[in-house]
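User: Hey, quick favor. My workstation is busy. Could you predict this chain's structure for me?
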Amino acid sequence: MPQGKKIISCDQTYVIGLPKGGSTADSTVQKHWDRYSELLRNASPSHAHRGHFWCREASKEVPAARIARSLGEEGSWRQYYSALRSKDVGFRPVMKLPEGHGFQTGDTLRRFTLTMDGRITYFNAGQKRAPKHYHHGGKLHFVDSYTDNRLLIPWVVVGDYAIAAENLLVDISWDDLCSQGFVSESSV
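Assistant: No problem, here it is.
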């Protein structure tokens, strides 16, 4: 089971957490990220490459730093200290899909709404939008109580996983995400 928050919806279990970032020296991981980039560019061309986002691992080169990725840009792999909050680094989670999900790689699905302190953080009215800024100390939850597609997060399927089509929040540190269970196994 991947690391992250476990969410049970309609008797199916999903896990939402940070993606594995790897290293640019690891050709297997780089091919994986190249595939994500291609799929996201096709599914959401205007949003796919906006900003870096946190990954699970610590940097091997700088143990106090964490890895952040950006899809399709030069310098797509960077190291930042885990307490950093920046408009340039955000939260773009991956979701482990339930067994027998029936989706094909490249499909886009809309699932869950992200709330912060009970307020909706994602709203897509069909236009470019900047991700919302995280409020330090805000409690994040993925909920399945909304049916309006504009409130549901678009995810792009890759095998048994899906990655958010864009950063959901910025100005959020790796430490913030860790404290809320998106790095290690936890339940909602």
